[in-house]
Specification:
Elements lengths: L2 H15 L25 H14 L30 H18 L5 H12 L13 H28 L2 E8 L2 E8 H8 L11
Helix pairs in contact: 3-4, 4-5
């Protein structure tokens, strides 16, 4: 049907995929030709020549195959510029991180909040805070959990060390009996100093 019909069909398919970005068509003279050597004026002549040669062969036009190479412009990707996680930017993100964790009902210790603040500080200004989903975030959560358990145990030990009385068990005629005794009396009877000998850790 002619070169114009062929070009219109190709342009139509191109416009369906990438609307409004149709560019001029070029002819590739050889298989190994560089793109700078493509010709925009010889395409119709070459098509007519190839079609004429196909007519000279038996059933040549029936088996005629035309390969078209369509070069699509590469889309421009939006680049995300990372910021430096300075101490000032980290302090600035701490309230936002704490508010987000509170809204989502996520329990987070100091290590978790600091990691999230550092991550958020590296993002561009105005980026919404998000909860990280990676191995490092899970590890700092585990660190906070372990630290909370250690702090709780130390607090309980400190309370016991500073308590005025303690519950002790003594045997009376072979029967264990729980009794509340004054710590200062036991220390005086055993000759111990007036402070706990247990380390707070």
């Amino acid at each position: 049907k002619g070169y114009r019909v062929l070009r219109a069909k190709v342009e139509e398919h191109f416009d369906i995929k990438i609307p409004g970005q149709w560019c001029a068509d070029y002819f590739k003279p050889t298989n190994n030709a560089y793109q700078k050597d493509f010709d925009s004026s010889a395409l119709q002549v070459q098509l007519d020549t190839a079609w004429h040669k196909a007519r000279l062969r038996n059933d040549g036009q029936a088996g005629f195959v035309l390969e078209l190479y369509v070069y699509v412009p590469k889309p421009v990707e939006a680049t995300t510029t990372l910021r430096r996680d300075t101490a000032a930017r980290i302090r600035e993100q701490m309230p936002r991180v704490a508010e987000m964790l509170r809204e989502q009902g996520i329990t987070a210790g100091p290590a978790t909040q600091n990691y999230m603040a550092v991550t958020q500080a590296r993002l561009p200004d105005g980026a919404p805070p998000v909860v990280p989903n990676n191995t490092t975030f899970q590890r700092v959560q585990h660190v906070d959990t372990r630290q909370a358990a250690i702090d709780s145990a130390m607090q309980e030990g400190q309370q016991l060390a500073t308590a005025e009385c303690h519950l002790v068990r003594v045997k009376i005629q072979g029967v264990p009996v729980a009794m509340v005794v004054k710590i200062s009396d036991i220390r005086s009877a055993l000759g111990l100093p007036d402070y706990s000998l247990r380390p707070p850790f």
